[in-house]
Each structure stands twice: as C-alpha cells, then as structure tokens.
Amino acid sequence: MRLRTLLGDYPGTTALKNGSIKSDLVQFDFADYSPTNRGFKPMVREAAFDVSEMAIVTYLMAKSFGKPMVLLPDVVLARFQHGHALYNAKAGKLAPRDLNGKRVGIRSFTTTTGAWLRGILANDYGVDLDSIDWVTFEDAHVAEFVDTTKRAGAGKQIVQMLIDGELDAMLGEKSDHPDLKPLFADVAAEEKAWFEKHKVVPINHMVVVSRTLSDQHPDVVREVHRLLAESAAASPAAPRFDRGEMQRSLELIIDYSAQQKLIPRAFAVDELFDDVTRALR
Fold it and tell me: Of 171, 186, 247, 269, which is most buried, counting CB atoms within 10 Å of its CB?
C-alpha cells in the first residue's frame, strides 16, 4: 500500500526516508514541505496525508474538534524549551518573572514550543499569562480555534520587532543578534533543574495516521509503527521514550494546554490513541 506521508528529516527518520529500512507491506510517498510544520495545516484541515508528523499541541487541539486522526506512540522531535525564549538586553535586563504586562511575540499562540514555555512560565515562575500582550504572526493549524491575540502588522517579522523594541520578548525563536539574550539566564542550569523537578523531556512532534487507515488497515498502521521504531533505533540521536516517560510528557503538555484554554478539557493519555495504536505503546 502506498501512503501519502509527511515526515521531516531527523536523526530518527533518516533510515526510513533513505530507504535503508524497507517493508513488503507499505511504501511511503513523502510530501515536500519546508519547514515540515507547513504541512500540519493541510493534514488537520484537509486530511491531506495517511501518515503525518504532527505537533502534539496541534494534535490535542485537532482531537478536541473531532478531526479524524489517531496518534502513534512515535516521537520524532523532543527537546527542552528554555533556550527558545529571548529578550532585547539593550532595553534592560528581563527575567522570566518580569514578563507580567509585557509585549511578547510568538509565531502562533498555538505552537507546541509556545505552550510548553507558557506552562513553564506560569507554573514554575508565577507569570500571569493573561496579563501579557501577546502578538502573533500566524493563525492556528486548527481552523475552528478562536485566536484572540493581537496580530502583528502586515510584513512584520518577529525577530526584527524584538530588535526594534516593538516587543519585550519572544517565544519559540532563536537568534544570534548580539542584543538578543536568553530570557532564562543560564539555560543549561534551568533545563537541568526543571527536569529534576518534573522528570519530563518535552515532546514536540509525534506521528499520526488517518482514522480511516487505522479503522480499515490496522495491519498497515502496525507496520508503520514498526518502521518508525526501527528507524529511530538505528540512530543514537533519536528521541528515546519508554512508556512511563512518554506518559509523563503527554500528561504535562495536556495539562498546560488545558490551562491555557487551547483545549476545553484535559484528556487522559489513553484517549489520544485508538484500540490499534494504544496496543503499540
């Protein structure tokens, strides 16, 4: 069976994408989106793929609106988030606890990195997220979500707005501009302390399949998971999550997403899977 597939280039997907791991049951027709997250909107809105990489917060939001997708227990991107928050040091020192009432830019309010960082800021630093003047540049992948943030003007770029003093901080971006410094002063130390507290590595992207594929071809879904797992096992740089680690990471991003009203309620982790994919965890 040929599967329309969206899957980015990561250490854990290399063996699958270069053909060194093969299957007698399935073949992948890889879509070309750069960056890969540009393909999430077509998947959510048009069911454009049979198999798709998916930001976990986008998946949670899509599930809340009944989109016909099912999660696989395969992580393709996971990372600590603290290094993806910057401020303009030229305007004076800014620490996480100073963000109340400030202007903060983010590509879209619904990005997974943004949800992780807001959760960290609110729960670990006492930041009042509702006090922040959020400035966004794109709408949500899920069309039904009502975004109440302030949209940046046409042609505006998030990094340049921070450099020009039109923003106080930004989330979800990196820059080597000399005026832009990490909001978390010692990123490595902050990440280490956060992990020791929560015992969680933040998941960014996993893989989903269409509900139709899972309902009608469970053998194909199981084969897709096998191939993804073998490809990940072939690279020492691929994310590694046992069942408990995945459970903790998913529980926390679900809680953060519910706190931030990205989803109407906190799902149980088992709800993210169906009978076919739940057995693969």
Answer: 171
pTM: 0.97
Residue 107 structure tokens: 């590509």
Per the CB < 8 A criterion, the answer to whether 257 and 263 are in contact is yes
Structure-token match 């039904």, residue found = 144
Per-residue pLDDT tens over the stretch 8-27: 999 999 999 999 999 999 99
H-helix segments, the chain: 14-17, 40-46, 56-64, 112-125, 158-163, 187-198, 211-216, 218-233, 243-259, 275-278
Ramachandran area for residue 92 (φ above 0: left; ψ -120 to 50: alpha; else beta): left
Q: In whole angstroms, how far apart are CA 84 and each of 3, 36, 117?
A: 34, 18, 8
Measured CA to CA, the distance from residue 160 to residue 151 in angstroms comes to 15
| 65: amino acid identity, one letter | F
Q: Which of 239, 199, 231, 222 minimizes the C-alpha distance to 276?
A: 222
Cα separation, 152 vs 128, whole angstroms: 22
Contact at 8 Å (CB) between 112 and 205? yes
Tens-place pLDDT, residues 124-164: 999 999 999 999 999 999 999 999 999 999 999 999 999 99
Averaged pLDDT for residues 65-77: 98
SS3 labels along 176-194? CCCCEEECCCCHHHHHHHH
